[in-house]
Structure formats: structure tokens, C-alpha cells
Amino acid sequence: MTKVQFRKAIQEGIPAELPEKKPFDLLVSHAPKRKDVLNLEEKKLALKNALRYFPKKFHDILAPEFLEELKNYGRIYMYRFRPEYEMYARPIDEYPCRSKQAASIMLMIQNNLDPAVAQHPHELITYGGNGAVFQNWAQYLLAMKYLAEMTDNQTLVMYSGHPLGLFPSHPDAPRVVVTNGMMIPNYSSKEEYEKFNALGVTQYGQMTAGSYMYIGPQGIVHGTTITLLNAARFHSKGSASGKIFVSSGLGGMSGAQPKAAVIAGMVAVVAEINPKAIQKRFEQGWVDEVFSELDELISRMLVAQKGKEAVSLAYQGNVVDLWEKLAKENIKIDLGSDQTSLHNPFAGGYYPVGLSFEESNKMMAENPAKFKKKVYESLRRQVNAINKLTQNGMYFFDYGNAFLLEASRAGAEIYDDRGEFRY
Fold first, then answer.
1. Whole-structure pTM value
2. Which of 15, 64, 81, 129 has the most beta carbons within 10 angstroms of its beta carbon?
3. In a domain, 98, yes or no
4. Tally of domains in the chain
């Protein structure tokens, strides 16, 4: 696509003619199917909410298509309207605009949705399993169109991915005002949020997905490096060189862990169950070596420790299997943590031991009660293995991902004698 065609596509917004349906791309990491939480009347409302973006002449075609998406994925993403152009942050002068500030925001949005950056790009999710930029592709198209049209005397107001419109303001005002996940307190449970998200009226934007400011693992690699260096300095003897750090998660922000450990001079071992996430981090250089067999992984880890290598090793598998293997063989680990997305434990943020990646994705949608039970069983096993390793000298810390909170809800042995978290 030429630059002229790209600018024209941005300025058009919702296409005047329906684009062809797009095949489901199996090469891209997709969000897991969300559980069915809407009754019949609510599904009708979800369809109305989706169809409001389009002329009535398209409704006969789009209504059954969107209903099928709702059935198959638990959400309406409007895959048909995913742009034909490649998604990445272009030089700012390539964007059609009347305001350079608005053009910079278009650049940021496209960076958040770049397949090299986003966790589930076709579902408009940047990181954390459910950190969304928009709820659907119509919202993306409209927001980009408004940004191309607006001046420095206007402000675009966004609510959970939905562009409310351009409002008069002034050059010193924000060009965009964003809110995400606004919930009335009496209806702010996880269950109510899931329902409203399926209805298309709210989204969870995380900190930098729905505010268009995500810069990938590089944004946290320095902080993680300092954390690891201080953990090694305060809680183990000698330098950080050759120390073993074990954790999990390579999907989003967690992808910084292996690189941070290498910068600190350590041996990093990070588990990730999603093969596409591991492949992305390996190709981008965030991890040095990938293993799918625990015996081979541990052998390589011990060689690296002995040679005081600064190297990152990814384990394609479940982190609980890794923790239990290390505990069973009584292997000395220096530092441990966890960066699975446990703020979102039952919808793709945590994958329980004993189930494959595909089996988990199926169960969380089709039998959510059983999946929740499996998650809690897995967390109890994970904590048991971690406790054994900490008794052998490992220092473990929660890195802000709600691991301790969800482990406590699971009934894991995560409290000390004073009733406080052990870690």
C-alpha cells in the first residue's frame, strides 16, 4: 500500500463499501475465547451496540456475522474491518493530520497494535491478557479518522475505546481525553465487568494499552534489572554473576525479565506456555535459548551457573512443572518470582498445570467453573514448590501481578505465622 493509499484509508474511517471477510490468521497469537456470559436479550443488545457504527444497509450482512463472532469468541471484534495496511508506527509525517499532536497519537495507537508489540493484535489487546486499545476495529477506524481531522483547538473524548466525538477546546488543552473501565461501584465485580465488556460498553485498558502509551518490555527492563540487582545484593551472598533467577511469563511486560537478568549478569529461566509468545521473544532477542524438555533445560542452567554465564533460557511449558521439578531435585535457586497475569486469572492470564495451552483455552470458555478450580489447584501446587525452594535459600518476591492475592484466594500456604504474606 502506498503512502497516499494509507492516508486515504485513515481519512475514510468506516469504509463506504464492505471490505471482504478476512480469514482467521493462525500465525498470530489470539486472545482465548471468552466465556458466554450474556442471556438472549443481552446478546441482542450487544449486536445493537456493535451495529451502531455502520449504515443500516450493512446490517443484514453484519448482524449474523457479529453474532457468530460473539458465539465463537465471546466478544465482537469485527475482524472484517481490520485494516489492509500493515500495522506499525510510521514516521509522523506519513499520517494525514491538521494537528501534529494528533498525528503523534495515531503513531502511538499503531505502535500499540503492531503484531511485533501487541500480545493479541487482532483482538486489539496489547498486554496483560485483556489490556485493550479498543474493543473492536470500528472504534479504531473512527478514532483514527477523528485524529486525522481534528485541529489544535479540539479535543477527542474517548470512553473505553468508543470515540464520543470532537469537542471545542484550545491549544493548551489535551488533544485526547481517555477513560477506560468505568464501573458503578455496586456493579464493579469481575462478573459484571465481563458482562459489560461482552456488551461492548466497557474495556480494561491496563495502564498503557488503552491510553496508547505502551512501549513493550523495554519500558520496564531497567526497573526489573535494578530489582534483580537489589534482590541479589540484599538476599544472597556475593555478586549477581552466575546467580539463577526463575520466573514465568513472556507475553507482555513480563518479557523484560530474561533481558534484565542477563544485564544483571544472571542466569534467567523463564517459563511460558504460549508457543507464539516464546517465539516472538526469541526472535526479538529477549531470550537466548528455548527448551521444551525440563531435563535439558536444567542441565543447561547448571552449566551456565557453573560458568557464571549471563544467559536467558526460556522453558516452553507450565511453570508449575518447572517449580516442582526444581523442588523435587533439591536444586539451589537464588531468586524467584512470577509474572503471569494473575489480575486476570480465569480468562487467559494464568494457565493451570496438567492442561495443555489448547485444553485450557477450551475449558475456560466452555466450563469456567471447572477451570477456576483447576487454576486454584495449580496455584496451591505452585506455592508448595516455591515454599520448599525458599526453605533451601531461595528469595521469592511478588512483582506486582497479584500472585500472592490469588494464591491466598486459592487457599495456598502463602501466609506466615502472623497472618501476613510470606513473600
1. 0.84
2. 129
3. yes
4. 2
Residues 243 and 276 in one domain: yes
Whether 8 and 128 share a structural domain? yes
Specify whether 18 is located in the same domain as 142. yes
For residues 318 and 353, the answer to whether their CB atoms sit within 8 Å is yes
The answer to whether residues 168 and 297 belong to one domain is no
Distance between CA atoms of 257 and 266, rounded to whole angstroms?
11
Report if residue 415 sits inside a domain: no
The amino acid present at 323, given as its one-letter code, is W
Domain boundary among 199, 228, 251: 199
The 267-272 sheet, strands edge to edge: 289-291, 311-316, 267-272, 244-248, 335-336, 395-396
Q: Please report, in tens digits, the pLDDT of each residue of the chain (423 residues total).
A: 899 999 999 999 999 999 999 999 999 999 999 999 999 999 999 999 999 999 999 999 999 999 999 999 999 999 999 999 999 999 999 999 999 999 999 999 999 999 999 999 999 999 988 899 999 999 999 999 999 999 999 999 999 999 999 999 999 999 999 999 988 888 889 899 999 999 999 999 988 999 999 887 777 899 999 999 999 999 988 889 999 999 999 987 788 899 999 999 999 999 999 999 999 999 999 999 999 999 999 999 999 999 999 999 999 999 999 999 999 999 999 999 999 989 889 999 999 999 999 999 999 999 999 999 999 999 999 999 999 999 999 999 998 889 999 999 999 999 999 999 999
> Do 99 and 32 sit in the same domain of this protein?
yes
3-state SS, residue 77? coil
Count how many Cα atoms sit within 13 Å of the Cα of residue 31 in the half-sphere of its side chain: 29
Q: Which long-range contacts (CB under 8 A, 24 or more apart) does 188-193 make?
A: 191/37
Picking from 418, 285, 348, the residue whose alpha carbon sits closest to that of residue 119 is 348
223, 193: one domain = no
Domain around 133: 3-199
Q: Residue 304: give its domain's CATH number.
A: 3.40.50.10730
Is residue 11 domain-resident? yes
